[in-house]
Structure formats: C-alpha cells, structure tokens
Amino acid sequence: MSHETMLAAINAELRNADVATMNLVLETLRQAKQAKPKSRARVSDSITPIKPQTQTVAEFIGENPPFDPHRNLSLHERGAFKRQLKAQNHEWLLKQFQKLKVAWLMVIDGRVTASGATLESYPKPEQILDVCQRTGKFPFLFVNEDHLCIEENGSWPKTIIPDDYYPTARIKLRSNNGAIELIGDFDTGASSTFVDYDWLVKHNLVQLQAQEDAESSHHLNQAYEYLPRSFVVEIASKSGEIRSHEMTISCVADWQKSPFTKINPGRTALLGRDIFLSFDPKCCWISQRYALKFKVQKPQRERKKNPAKANGALRRRANDVDL
Prior knowledge:
The protein is of the alpha+beta class. Helix content is 28%, strand content 24%. It has helices spanning 3-14, 19-45, 75-88, 90-100, 125-135, 197-202, 273-279, 307-310; strands at 104-108, 111-116, 140-143, 168-175, 178-186, 194-196, 215-219, 222-236, 242-252, 269-271, 282-286, 291-295. The longest helix has 27 residues, at 19-45. It is elongated.
C-alpha cells in the first residue's frame, strides 16, 4: 500500500471519529515517532565498531614429522623439502632472525627451541640425534642466509676468464672419520666456506645421517643444496707450525653443477673469510704459483684459556640457546 493510499484510508476512518479517539491516535503517532530513533540508538549501541587489524606475521606452517632412524632421503630430497618449507614460512623466518639476531635456529611444534649467534654453534649430528630421541620428532633447522653472503669476484687459479686466476690456500679438514688436505680458492667476498659434498663423501669425511637436515640457498641466481657440517680446520705455516679451529662448513651437493664452479670448473672448495678470521694469520702470495702462504701468529687479543673449549666445546655467544 502506497503512502498516499494509507493517508486516504486514515482520513476516512478519522472523519467520523470522536475527540477521544482522535486524541488516542495522535498520542500513538507521537510515541511511534519517539520510539523509532530510540530503537535505532539501542541497535547502534549494541554493535561494537570493528577496529582495523594490524597485519601480523602468520604462525609457522608445517608439522615436524616423527623421527625415523631409518630415514633414507638423499641430500637433494631433503633440500627440496627445506626449500618448500622456507618458501611458505619466509616472513615468519625473517621476523625470527631479525628479532633473535642469530645465524641459525631450530623449530619444533612451531616454536624456536634452539638457536646460535654464529654458524660455529650449528648443531652436530649427535646433538640433533639427541633432540630427535627426546622429542620423537624430526627438528627443522634453518640458516640465516645473511651469514652466507658471497660476492663473487674473479682473481687467481685460472678461471674461464682469460688471464684470470684465483689465489689458493691449503687447509686440512678433520672429522671423526679422518682427515684430508685440500687446496681451495680463497675469496674475501665469501663470508663462509663451501666444499664439494660428494668429494667429502668419497674420502669418507662425511656420511649423511638420518637425523640431519639439508639446507637450500641461491648463488649467482642458481639454487643449490648443502649440508652444514662441523669440521676441525687446520692450517700450517711455512715453518710447519699448525693451528686448528672447529667451525661449520657448507658441504654443497652436485658441486660440479653448482654455481660455485661456474667461474672455475676445477674448484674443490671456496674458502671464505670465516677461516681466516678464525686464525688471524698473516698472508702473502707467490705470484708465480698464485698460492697463499701463511705466517701463523697469535691473535692481537689473547683469548682466555678455557678447559671446556680445549676439549672441543664451542664458544658460547650471548644469543645462543641450548638444544
């Protein structure tokens, strides 16, 4: 019924109405007018305004699989899984690394359960196994890629660039299975050291274990998988004096197809600043052989003797969190 039709019907009814009836109708209309805005006020009062939500970093995505001591995945398969895990948790991981200011962290049930300020404290296989046995789960380990920066610049043995060479250095790597010498290209543009994983396996210095977690990263716009492993690194001076230091090295899978051999296909290892900063050596090179020679010297600041460190324990840092 239209507004005009309703008014006509009301007027027709009121023509013959007495005064009392008309007063009642008028009062009803007045009450109706007053009630309508009050009703609206009550409805609006009952609604809580929606405040704009601040965008937050999502929770960690992914569940730790049960630990299987017979787990038999290749380094590539573990690396591919890690690459997917890192991609879907990119923002979460970035937030954690920025907040904790660490080089690596361990995640179990969506929480950071351990971390280290430097890659020196990256968990060893036996430490990871202990976590697996205590929790019954396979922990996720992530490396902060800011600690793996590489600025590739050609310098001396001969590379694919004419008359271009990389300086080399001789070091010895020692693990629980043995020791081996290698000659690697020394690159001050690399913060960490990278070695051919298959070469280490061939010489029995590395055996991939069920509890170990592969990592993935990029260099020269190419993805690669690697295994962070702790070695005792030894360097010798010309006089034969030897110094050693325990450190984490990135063991790169499919080395010959990796970005680390693009500039020098004959390379076995890329030695980064971490090795040389650990030893504080004086370096000089013999240009005819393009080789570095070391003069082992005491660090400028004498380190305090620590019995725990003498037994192989890693240095503790302020941001380290125990496993």
